[in-house]
TrEMBL record:
Name of the molecule in the record: Box C/D snoRNA protein 1
A Pfam entry, by short name: zf-HIT
Entry coiled-coil feature ranges: none
Gene giving rise to this polypeptide: Znhit6
Assembly with partners or alone: Interacts with FBL, SNU13, NOP58, NUFIP1, RUVBL1, RUVBL2 and TAF9. Interacts (via HIT-type zinc finger) with the RUVBL1/RUVBL2 complex in the presence of ADP.
Length: 266
């Protein structure tokens, strides 16, 4: 044993070829030499010492490398950022549904986190969706929400006293104890000046697609869930006495240079 020099060696370290007699000496030699005990698969072996075992080891090593490279390529294809062509197709499909979908340049947070896709076989959007429960200061992100799902069904796991998760139900208690008629779903109107921010009120009984038609969406929809009985500073379009109820398109105004840069297609 090269560690205690007392007992006959029984083991040989695959990494540094040190002889040891027991588990205790194995641990001591690893600590003393900072050895991890894992065989170096890329260590040089001379031709004279090369055996069938070395050949098998090299073959398995190359197989492992191939599997790792293939897994990395698959991960990039599935989870990597969409190409410009895919973004163009996504915007084009949205346009056919009367939705003005706009994407941000690479690097913006909303661009990185957006997971919205379009299923060509089903001819259906699966939206990345953010829910903001204003009165509880809570936010939830949903992925893969089908466009034919009603807003009422989308909100059920959050504010329904029976179907909601107990933890979420407790956090959103102020919503779960309120009647559904008191719940109001709003979405911010894009392309307005900062001093005249307005919101569209959405219909909980209609599908997500129907509610998004005729509206500008930057990356993905963000829905604000509020209670009518509680005060908030959000002005719904058409409910302000100082302005008439108009279509959101006619209310659109030019963006500042910074906002234009944010919604310009990458």
């Amino acid at each position: 044993c090269e560690t205690c020099s007392e007992e006959e060696a029984k083991y040989r370290c695959p990494r540094c070829m040190t002889y040891s007699c027991s588990l205790l000496c194995v641990k001591k030699h690893k600590l003393a030499r900072s050895c991890n005990g894992v065989r170096d698969k890329t260590a040089f072996v001379s031709v004279n010492e090369f055996t069938d075992l070395n050949l098998l080891s090299d073959y398995r090593f190359l197989e492992d490398v191939g599997r790792t490279a293939d897994a990395a390529a698959r991960h990039l294809a599935v989870h990597g950022p969409p190409t410009k062509k895919l973004l163009y197709c996504l915007r084009n499909k949205a346009r056919k549904c009367n939705i003005d979908l706009r994407t941000l340049p690479v690097g913006f947070t909303k661009r990185r986190e957006n997971s919205t896709t379009f299923n060509g076989m089903e001819k259906k959007f699966y939206w990345h969706l953010k829910l903001v429960f204003l009165h509880c200061h809570a936010e939830y992100t949903l992925k893969g929400v089908p466009d034919d799902k009603t807003l009422a069904d989308i909100l059920k796991p959050y504010i329904d006293p029976v179907e909601s998760d107990p933890v979420i139900c407790q956090r959103l208690k102020i919503y779960t104890v309120s009647s559904l008629s008191d719940v109001q779903i709003l979405m911010k109107i894009e392309n307005r000046k900062r001093n005249s921010i307005r919101y569209n009120e959405l219909d909980a009984s209609r599908s997500l697609l129907d509610n998004l038609k005729g509206k500008v969406i930057i990356e993905y929809p963000t829905l604000y869930v509020v209670l009518k009985t509680l005060k908030n500073d959000m002005v719904v379009l058409g409910q302000d006495a100082s302005e008439p109820a108009e279509n959101s398109d006619s209310e659109s105004s030019s963006l500042s240079s910074m906002e234009e840069g944010e919604i310009r297609d990458s």
